[in-house]
Amino acid sequence: MSATAFFGILASGMGVAMALAPLFQVRRVLERGQADDVSLTFLAVIAAGSMSWCAYGISTGDPFLIIPNTLGVITNVGTLLVVRRYQQRSAASVAPQR
Q: What's the structural domain count of the chain?
């Protein structure tokens, strides 16, 4: 196995692990029932970065970039949606009643 293939597999595997990491945040939000302390900006920036790397991977035909970054887009956008939903719930429960 060449060094390029070895490090491509290693980096892609670590990329998959990084892409799955936001699911820990989702689990915490679901357990607590609120997401007031979660940064939407952070999740949006990470999702945008994953989209950029995925696009670059597609343009070069590099599966070592495409696979983990596609997963990163999915998990970060999904986490963003869950967090936003729970932040809106929390804001609605605090809003004064008329």
A: 1
Backbone angles phi, psi at 50, to 5 degrees: -65, -40
Q: Which residues contact 17 (CB under 8 A, 6 or more apart)?
A: none
Question: What kind and span of H or E run contains 24?
Answer: helix 22-32
Query: Residue 65's domain spans which residues?
Result: 38-90
Number of DSSP helices (H) and strands (E) in the chain, helices first? 4, 0
Asked if residue 83 is part of any domain, the answer here is: yes
- The pTM for the full model equals 0.83
61, part of any domain: yes
Measured in whole angstroms, the distance separating CA 20 from the mean position of its chain's CA atoms is 7
pLDDT band at 68 (very low <50, low <70, confident <90, very high): very high
